[in-house]
Every structure is written in structure tokens, then in C-alpha cells.
Amino acid sequence: xxxxxxxxxxxxxxxxxxxxxxxxxxxxxxxxxxxxxxxxxxxxxxxxxxxxxxxxxxxxxxxxxxxxxxxxxxxxxxxxxxxxxxxxxxxxxxxxxxxxxxxxxxxxxxxxxxxxxxxxxxxxxxxxxxxxxxxxxxxxxxxxxxxxxxxxxxxxxxxxxxxxxxxxxxxxxxxxxxxxxxxxxxxxxxxxxxxxxxxxxxxxxxxxxxxxxxxxxxxxxxxxxxxxxxxxxxxxxxxxxxxxxxxxxxxxxxxxxxxxxxxxxxxxxxxxxxxxxxxxxxxxxxxxxxxxxxxxxxxxxxxxxxxxxxxxxxxxxxxxxxxxxxxxxxxxxxxxxxxxxxxxxxxxxxxxxxxxxxxxxxxxxxxxxxxxxxx
Length: 375
Hints:
- The protein is 6% helix and 49% strand.
- Strand 28 and strand 29 form a beta hairpin.
- The longest helix is centred in the first third of the chain and has 13 residues.
- The chain is globular.
């Protein structure tokens, strides 16, 4: 064989070698509540480890009657057990696989076995979320202008004095965001505007064009010593801050949702503490983000819904869309089971390799890696 032929053959052999496979993330359904006489609306999902998860929500039957429900798994989602509870669970916080707290429409409960059994700690309405720094120190937030703290694991709760002293807070103030990284923590609330009696945007598309998202007032309490002392700030906001997470780099990711007629359904912002203007890191007209999760590799996940019509206010489930970023700037969509639809979805991600998303249509999906995907 001539030299040239041998060279060509060698080059062809290199290009004909099988390409090394690159894993791609795919979201598959692990649980689906599929009963003809009722629906399951999942409100929250917590997975402190890759084995243990608890989801909260309520079941609504065909006559409109509701009952609280919890979903639990201890094997990474291979099996889920559904348990009914007497009150409506709104949110869950799990410190580990055993110790956790549940906020319901009528109080705060605790568990020391990961969710099968619960003990009521505080009987109060209006609370939305709880967050614990350790087994003893924790906070609960809600309305009206309500922030509680505990130093004994929830046996006794007292109102946070710093929240009581905030002059901008009123009976219409709702605290619904809380985040900590070490002893640095923030609590964010909004002064809800008075309702003006207008019909929902989606009922009046003709008049919607004359309406615009209005400025509102947000209140942020910030601590650097685990909640011993707080400083507050009041700022005008555009839209509602529904989630805020502090990153290891010291800044925060904030989810802002727009509920009146507006060109965007939501935006994800990079918030530098002490800097007036945040940076938009994600905003698309056809992606209504409802939750964000930080990953231990420095990246993040977004759960979003593709609105089924021209307005994000249409109360019809749309397709679930999951996005991932390694640098909080460039976002790539991941493949999602085509059956997954929702109006809202929540994420739980104990690490960068394990994540779950739950929908208000009774589905729980987990991320898998396709090792055979082509580069």
C-alpha cells in the first residue's frame, strides 16, 4: 500500500472511532396521582439527601372538598407513600432525614422520624414557611406581618422584635421569603396592595392592554449573626419577590414574578447586597419560572412553565420546562417527559447529581442521566 493510502486509512480510522458518549439530563416521572375523582396539588417538596424526600399538598375531590396530604420516599423516589393529614400543608423544611417542620393553614408541626409522624408545636394561622439553622434555632414567617423565632426546636415560639418595630409593615404585609447561608440570613416581605375589584387579566384580554404591572413595596430584614440582630430596608419593587437564595459567593438569586399584564411572566435576578440595581440572569416571555434551586457545584436549576396562550395569566396548565446553568448566566433546557404539565412547580436538589421537581398537577419527576446520548 502506498504511503498516501496508509495515511488516508489512518485518518479515516480516527474519524470512524465511536465518539465518547456524553451524559444528558432527562426528567422522568416517578410519581403521578392519577385518580378520576380527585386531583393532588403539590405545594412544596424537600429532599435533604438523595434518598429521602417529603412533598406536601392537598387532595381536591370532584365536589371541591379538600384534605391535606403528604408524599414520602426513603429510597430515592423508587417508591412513594401517600398519607392524608388533618390540616392543609403549605410548606416543608427538613434539616436532615429525620428532623423537620411542616407549616399548615393552622399552625406548625414537627417530626423526628422524617415525616411519618408529626407533633403540633404552634397553633396560629397565616404562617407560610419555616427555616431552621440547626435543631434548636429557627424562624417561621407569614402574615399579617408575622415573623416568629424559636431557640428550643419549636417548643416555644415568640414574635421577632425586629419585625414588630418595622414602621413600613402594615396589616397587609406578607413575609414569604427566607434564606440563610451560615449566619447570614434574609427575610423578604411585601406590602400587598389593596384589591381594586378588577376581574383577572385572563378574563378581560381587551382591557388587559391598558393595565400595567404596578410598583409595590418590599421589606427586607438582614442578619449576619444568625438572627440575634437584624437591620431592615424598604424598597419599591416591580413584581413580587417569591424566592431568594444566598449563594456561596455571597450574592443572592431572586425570583420575581409578575402577576398583572406584563411582557414577562418572571425574571431571575442576581442581587449583590448593598448594590441598588440587580442583574437579570434569566427572563423569557415563554418561560414562567416558579422555583429555583442552587446546586453544590455552583450551578442552578429553574422550574418553569411554558404558558399555553399569549398571556401568562391564563389558568390552564402548560408544559413543564427545566433549565440548568453551570455559571448562572447561560441556561440550557433539559428534556422533560412530554406528559408533565402544570401551572406551578417546585424543585428539591440535595446535590448536583440528584434533583426532583413536583407539580401542582400531582406529578413528581426526577433527573436521570442518559449515558448513551451523543455528543
